[in-house]
User: Fold this.
Amino acid sequence: MTDMTSWQHIIRNIGNVMIPPQCPSCHQVVSSDGICGECWSRLKTITTPACVQCGRGFDFDAGVSRCGQCLTQPPDFDRGIAAIRYNAMSKRLILGLKYAGRHDMTPILGRMMANQGASLLHQADWIVPLPLHWTRHFTRGYNQSAELARAAIKAAGVSPKTYRPDLIRRSKRTENQGHKTRQQRRHNMRGAFRLHADNACVKGATILIIDDVLTTGASLSSAARCLKAGGAKEVAVLVVARVG
Assistant:
């Protein structure tokens, strides 16, 4: 342990004594940075069997690798993993990060993503956070997908050189996706992303897109189409939570 690391460890311990770490959901004091046992029990991890393309968990093993939706209307990304199901507890954590600036939740959610999606993180040539339009980024002050991507990369022990938030940009300010049908979401996201001018590194690459929640996959599909149009070999997605 280096001297700097030792000092950081000491300072952190002093801080924990003065201001004990709390569960980001219920604010109960916990022994270390994380979620208390009661709140943790309300988070539902998505385990196999699950759809290999969109990450939707199966209620039972039917001997298939893709869900009915991906078989009939496949998304434009090739593989997908979600760490947990989107329920009342995960919603509270994600919305806290997304809209309330609760960055204390980022390492926790990043570890969940790293635990479930280690294979995707380690296989990716480039890891790309789903970008926000610049107006939303300016208003919010940060991109929650970028925060999650950095946390997942760190938790998984992946080289930070794989982090490439510059590969694509959001060129169109889209309407809020809430309360839209699957078809409306797809139409809303059409042409929403553009490759940056220098896209040579995209060609032949395996790229992983990071986001917070996957509902219909319209936003992630739009980004995947953009990357594949630029020559990406494969595009996978890793999200904190999966709706449905």
About this structure: The first strand starts at residue 79 and ends at 85. The domain at 20-242 is CATH 3.40.50 (Rossmann fold).
